[in-house]
What we know:
CATH class: Mainly Beta
Distance between the termini: 27 Å
Low-confidence stretches: none
Number of domains: 1
Number of helices: 2
Amino acid sequence: MLNSGDVVDLDLGLPEGREAGFRHPAVVASAQRILDAEPSVVFVVPLTSTLRDFHSEISIEPDDHNGLAALSAAQCQHLRAVSTGRIASTHGNVGVAVLAQIRETIAVLLDITI
């Protein structure tokens, strides 16, 4: 079963324009109460090892818990709904602090007041 904050590998398919595409790690951003119902579609935020100074990206240091091999950035501006069938594997979890940063950034991007 998936958990909020899980780092997963998934196939995003062919990108259009500046979309994230191909095989990418991503962070599961869906609420745990939704994941507990085992949905067929979940929200994810792709990760990249190309670090930019975008306010919409959250840097994540690799550690034993998240399973990342390199410093990565969560591309909150690329929030996507994907089929759980696209998820190939789970590597770890970013933890509650990083997940909160990701969700706060998504809220700003969508102009949602938390």
